[in-house]
């Protein structure tokens, strides 16, 4: 504060001192009145700088450049911030009466807070964020400890929130409590106006719903349609993928890998709901649509073979190393029967059943749901139009229809419902969001109707049959979307993510009675989205510090190859080929139009490398003008002084960007 005041012009030093003392008295009065300390950016910054100097992971390379911007990875920021919080806790300066409160502690979740303090005895903390106007209150208890990290979420934006803290001893008795009034700043206008046409007639089955993907920022709304959580991150089209232990994956919207069609994100962050990025993964061929966590903590997601096709493989990623340990090309199941276009199969949802070691996959562009044994890749069954697979390798694996059947066409999201009371033990219910379209893959059996549907099929694996158990007719959603089921209130939710364009909204959420199909509650979403989920905040994963100081980057990228012959440089082209170049630690990013850069050259005085992007080409005019960053790892490159060049339309051009690599820096 004194440094700031010293920069201002005062008539005398005495006046400057009086102003400083008054501000200090007001600050102390504010603290005394509220009885808490709000996070001080100066203190946090000093500890974060200490982290970078003393704790930050050892990088293989040290890069220096006068004309290329150098930044840290986002994960480093989370690790440094968590280190700062630990140092603040270790000072033991904050108590239950005067706790330390950091709102939006990691900079990505504005409606959260982290509360830090010490107690002399083992105790746990119960916090409650009071709901307003009948809205859901949010409450949870931490674990017993003397060192307390209390993660709080569910605040309202643009208002003063009422937060109650209760201290509970090992006997379960509340030994102290206090109420805190905390102002949380308003949300951005885009988020504030997301929900429209709210029509709630009865209590909803889910007090909190999570909307993610598409043109919509990830956000959570409550039973009053108030925004109670959001993340200010720019995800790719498919939003976030929830994992266990309060974490989720999200891919950078502007960092992709060129494919034969849609460029897919190749930089993925593992984040928790407080906004901490634990780890960053780089995946060479990108991921899309869906990801889940296996019992061994590995991640299964959807990727691309890049052998002339995209959106056609599943990969398993080792959680510890970030390396791909298994790739499943979908043609091993179906052969070449329908492998006649770039996006021929299009998996868009996954569900793993540990008891059976089975995987359920929804396949949009072959109008099918596939169930197979994960370990052996044996097909268990296919839910699809029998005539569509007639004469194919899998004809005998298609379930036989029983009674009147209404099939899925270009569906999204297939899940098995929990077993209901009195249900036939031989029957399992499979719920599918049927977009009911054939614009990607024509099908002779298609009944041209103007709606989408939630179809529930009774699958009898012993009899090898499928029957239509239940159907909900809903407004047409062109792509994306999903359905979820609540067994406790017997409700089904239609998460319609891409309605036909209107001036008011692109998405709609319908909560319906499972037995009657009656629409009980509904709300419209201004922008399109990918999916809607029940929001569950896992507190246990947020009570401990991040594993800072270690390796927070998992790199599966193919490094540039050694260049045997230097290219002949041409004069600069009239148009700009590369719009931006940056470093994030030992990773180089360049921004260009899709497939404009055919090769990137890294040429030094003694060494030269090339990254070749000509293994794919754009086949879809819809994607050819997209501009995004490509990323490459410089790990393994030898120390040298380098300059950058690109190949564009068959000609090589210097980019007039230079940098130096030295070994063994921080």
The count of strands amounts to: 46
Average pLDDT confidence is 92
Q: What characterizes the major β-sheet?
A: 7 strands, mixed
Poorly predicted spans: 1-5, 24-29
CATH class of the largest domain: Mainly Beta
Principal-axes shape call? globular
Coarse structural class: mainly beta
Rg result:
28 Å
What labels describe this entry?
disordered N terminus, Immunoglobulin-like, mainly beta, 666 residues, 6 helices, seven-stranded mixed β-sheet, 10% helix, 4 domains
Describe what is shown at a glance.
By secondary structure, the protein is mainly beta.
Topology overview:
Blueprint: H1 2-6, H2 13-34, E1 37-38, H3 41-54, E2 61-64, E3 69-71, H4 74-90, E4 100-103, E5 112-129, E6 138-141, E7 145-153, E8 159-168, E9 174-184, H5 189-192, E10 195-200, E11 208-213, E12 216-222, E13 227-230, E14 235-242, E15 247-252, E16 256-257, E17 264-265, E18 267-272, E19 277-282, E20 288-293, E21 299-303, E22 313-317, E23 324-329, H6 331-334, E24 347-353, E25 358-363, E26 368-373, E27 379-383, E28 400-401, E29 412-416, E30 427-434, E31 451-460, E32 465-475, E33 482-486, E34 491-496, E35 507-513, E36 519-525, E37 531-534, E38 553-555, E39 561-562, E40 578-584, E41 587-593, E42 599-604, E43 608-612, E44 627-633, E45 640-648, E46 651-663
Parallel strand pairs: 1-4, 3-40, 19-38, 28-32
Antiparallel strand pairs: 2-46, 4-5, 5-6, 5-7, 5-8, 8-9, 10-36, 11-12, 11-37, 12-13, 14-15, 15-18, 16-17, 18-19, 20-21, 21-22, 22-23, 24-25, 25-26, 26-27, 29-30, 30-31, 31-32, 33-34, 34-35, 35-36, 39-43, 40-41, 41-44, 42-43, 42-45, 45-46
């Amino acid at each position: 504060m004194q440094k700031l005041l010293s920069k201002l012009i005062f008539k005398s030093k005495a006046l400057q001192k009086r102003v400083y003392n008054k501000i200090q008295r007001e600050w102390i009065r504010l603290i005394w009145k509220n009885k808490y300390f709000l996070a001080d950016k100066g203190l946090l910054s000093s500890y974060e700088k200490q982290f970078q100097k003393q704790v930050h992971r050892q990088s293989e390379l040290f890069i220096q450049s006068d004309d290329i911007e150098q930044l840290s990875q986002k994960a480093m920021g989370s690790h440094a911030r968590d280190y700062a919080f630990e140092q603040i806790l270790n000072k033991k300066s904050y108590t239950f009466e005067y706790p330390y409160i950091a709102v939006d502690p990691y900079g990505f979740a504005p409606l959260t807070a982290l509360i830090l303090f010490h107690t002399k005895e083992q105790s746990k903390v119960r916090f409650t964020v009071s709901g307003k106007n009948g809205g859901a209150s949010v409450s949870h208890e931490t674990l017993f400890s003397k060192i307390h990290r209390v993660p709080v979420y569910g605040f309202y934006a643009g208002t003063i929130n009422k937060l109650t803290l209760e201290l509970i001893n090992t006997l379960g008795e509340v030994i102290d409590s206090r109420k805190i009034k905390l102002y949380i700043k308003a949300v951005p206008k885009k988020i504030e106006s997301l929900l429209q046409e709210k029509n709630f007639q009865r209590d909803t089955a889910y007090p909190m719903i999570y909307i993610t993907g598409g043109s919509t920022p990830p956000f959570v709304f409550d039973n009053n349609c108030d925004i109670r959580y959001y993340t200010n991150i720019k995800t790719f089209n498919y939003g976030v993928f929830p994992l266990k232990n309060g974490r989720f994956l999200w891919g950078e919207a502007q960092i992709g890998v060129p494919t034969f069609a849609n460029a897919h994100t190749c930089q993925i962050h593992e984040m928790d709901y407080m906004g901490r990025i634990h780890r960053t993964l780089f995946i060479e061929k990108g991921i899309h649509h869906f990801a889940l966590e296996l019992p061994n903590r590995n991640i299964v997601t959807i990727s691309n073979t890049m052998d002339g096709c995209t959106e056609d493989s599943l990969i398993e990623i080792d959680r510890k190393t970030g390396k791909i340990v298994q790739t499943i090309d979908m043609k091993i199941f179906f052969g070449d029967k329908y492998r006649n276009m770039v996006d021929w199969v299009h998996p868009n949802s996954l569900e793993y059943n540990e008891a059976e070691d089975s995987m359920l996959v929804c396949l949009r562009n072959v109008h099918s749901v596939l169930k197979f044994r994960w370990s052996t890749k044996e097909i268990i069954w296919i839910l699809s139009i029998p005539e569509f697979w007639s004469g194919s390798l899998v004809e005998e694996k298609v379930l036989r229809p029983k009674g009147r059947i209404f099939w899925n066409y270009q569906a999204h999201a297939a899940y098995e419902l929990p077993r209901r009371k009195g249900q036939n033990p031989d029957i399992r219910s499979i719920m599918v969001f049927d977009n009911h379209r054939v614009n990607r893959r024509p099908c002779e059996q298609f009944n041209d109707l103007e709606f989408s549907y939630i179809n529930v099929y009774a699958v009898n694996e012993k009899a090898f049959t499928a029957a239509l158990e239940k159907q909900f007719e809903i407004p047409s959603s062109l792509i994306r979307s999903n359905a979820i089921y609540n067994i406790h209130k017997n409700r089904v939710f239609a998460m319609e993510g891409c309605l036909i364009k209107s001036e008011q909204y692109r998405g709609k959420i319908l909560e319906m009675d499972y037995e009657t199909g009656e629409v009980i509650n509904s709300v419209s979403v201004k922008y399109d989205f990918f999916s809607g989920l029940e929001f569950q905040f896992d507190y246990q994963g947020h009570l401990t510090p991040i594993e800072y100081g270690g390796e927070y980057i998992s790199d599966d990228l193919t490094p540039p190859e050694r260049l045997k012959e230097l290219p002949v440089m041409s004069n600069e082209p009239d148009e700009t080929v590369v719009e931006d170049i940056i470093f994030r630690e030992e990773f180089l990013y360049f921004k260009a139009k899709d497939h404009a850069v055919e090769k990137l050259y890294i040429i030094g005085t003694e060494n030269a490398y090339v990254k070749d992007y000509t293994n794919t080409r754009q086949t879809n005019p819809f994607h050819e003008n997209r501009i995004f960053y490509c990323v490459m790892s410089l790990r393994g490159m030898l120390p040298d002084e380098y300059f950058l060049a690109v190949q564009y339309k068959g000609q090589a051009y210097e980019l007039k960007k230079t940098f130096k690599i030295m070994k063994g820096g921080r």
